[in-house]
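Thread title: Can someone regenerate the structure for this chain?

I was given the following input by a collaborator and told the matching structure tokens would be attached. They weren't. Posting the sequence so someone can regenerate them.
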Amino acid sequence: MDGVEGLFLLTVGSIGRRKNQLASIRAFAHAGLADAGYRYVICGSREPGSEAVIAEAGQTPGVILLPYVSDEQLRWLYAHARGFVLVSLLEGFGVPVAEAMRNGLVPLISADSVLEEVAGPSAIAVDPHSVEAIAAGMIQLAELRPDQIAARRVDLEARLDAFSMPTFVDAWRAFLRAEAEHRPPPLVASR
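Best answer:
Regenerated them for you:
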């Protein structure tokens, strides 16, 4: 991938408000990882809130914002990343995190989310509303030794293999219930 070299953390997913990349970019800057030789690569399609993410990425040293990438490019990114970051404010199926886990990356995710249940203790779970917490999680990802990464990979792969369809359906139903609790009631026209 042109422009992507050396040590980097990776986020894959729609770029916008929902995936919380604005806080992740600010956390990357707060952590000082660019000064330590790290880059933060974000790729995906655009969704509401992407303008703010694009502007912040353009002003933050070490951040590389890519468009939607090909499968070949995505495989390369997963194979060369140091860790995976997705501290989403609203997560759907969690496909990017599952892909990252399947590719051996330790994920940094939102605490108290469906993803935490899937990834378990081998993931690093943080408060998605705290730039400081996300920064601390990024530093923790960057400081993992190879033997620690290998041990976490074994656990993450086992968790993915054990995560059956009924478990997934139960997790998805819990997500939909939580989503419904925060959705405003439908507007009904009165006669």
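The two ends are 60 Å apart (CA to CA).
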